[in-house]
Amino acid sequence: MAEAKQSSVVRVAVRVAGVVLAALVLWGAMLLYQSQQPPAQPLEFNHQRHVQDLGMSCLFCHSNAQRGVSAGLPSLTKCMACHNNIEPTTPALQTLQAYAEKGETIPWVPVAMQPDFVYFSHRPHVNAGVACETCHGEVGQMTVAEPIKNQNMGWCLSCHKNSVDAEHFVKLSDCATCHK
Amino acid sequence: MAGGNGHEEHTKWVMVIDLDRCNGCGACVTACAMENNVAFTGEEENAYGRGMHWLRLQRYWEGEGDELRVRFIPTMCQQCSNAPCEPVCPVYATLHSEAEEINLQVYNRCIGTRYCANNCPYIARTFNWFDYEWPEPLNFHLNPDVTVRRRGIMEKCTFCIQRIRRAEENAKAEGREVYDGEVQPACAQACPTEAIVFGNWRDPNSRVRQLAASQRAFKLEEALGTEPKVIYLAGGRHEF
Predict the structure, then answer these.
(1) In whole angstroms, what is the distance from residue B200 CA to residue B129 CA?
(2) What topology is assigned to B2-239 in CATH?
(3) What is the reported pTM?
């Protein structure tokens, strides 16, 4: 009798341990999923200085967002149009100067990325009046641009399902809109 | 086209293939592979029946000796209105697009049961038995608009949905409607004899509509009731 009781206690303990372990693994996976870090850039471009302090528009540097699939990253020529006349006082500015002297393209690393099976085009979003900040966050207040966490399919659909009419809903919730 | 069977209201994009014009050159097959990142599996895999063509040229030999003739039928996914592949997918990876009214294959949903391919009467579907590679410099030709499929995923002709959507996006950005002939799948674009014509069935003046009015029009396996959206014009006047 005592033996039977003991084994049932052991069984309960094993089950509790199993549940705790599963919870820990899930929690760890969630932490890992949430731990997107901004990638290392060739130079520490300061978004806050350009957007908030100098009042520049996002589209000045990412000008392809209105016309194309990708918003684009600025070329060296675009940077140097202004920076030719600016004393390179900080390390970032000196790195820019070095790229300019060598005539090399700056190897910017894209921050906001979607997987290969997702098709995203900036043009319809920008033309529909979606502000850059809606998807990219307040980049103008960041120094180095940071990725937005949990930018998954449910996140996309949270806008796409709020369509003005049935026709738009059919189009915007169609699989082929994003998966080709 | 067998008109008046009641399914035309569910038809938007239609392809017409004139078999009199097709000379079996195979440009469509190549263009399709280039446009849609279709993997090259090689001779051995093909011999095992693991070729990956979304579009193939079916050859039919007739006669013997000096009288030997060959006919070609370019065959791809027929984008059935009543598609046998759709109800058998357990994860809704193959489903009907309400907006474009064609069959979609959602690669990131597919779990590779291959039920859809078993149920397809046109043998239009191909399965990624392995991860295929594009050795440099071939990887540079990969189309960024189209997913590169991994091992264990089913794939098939999409009527170049990326081109349909690109044309619609362009039209919307320019504030107009998509005009007839603006959407051209890769096979239609590559065809040197214009045997393949693509267009909108809802437009009464479209070229597909005019061509489909021909008495030569027929569909593959029409008796199955799959209601395909590829219309063939019977050949026989020219022989190769």
Answers:
(1) 35
(2) Alpha-Beta Plaits (3.30.70)
(3) 0.83
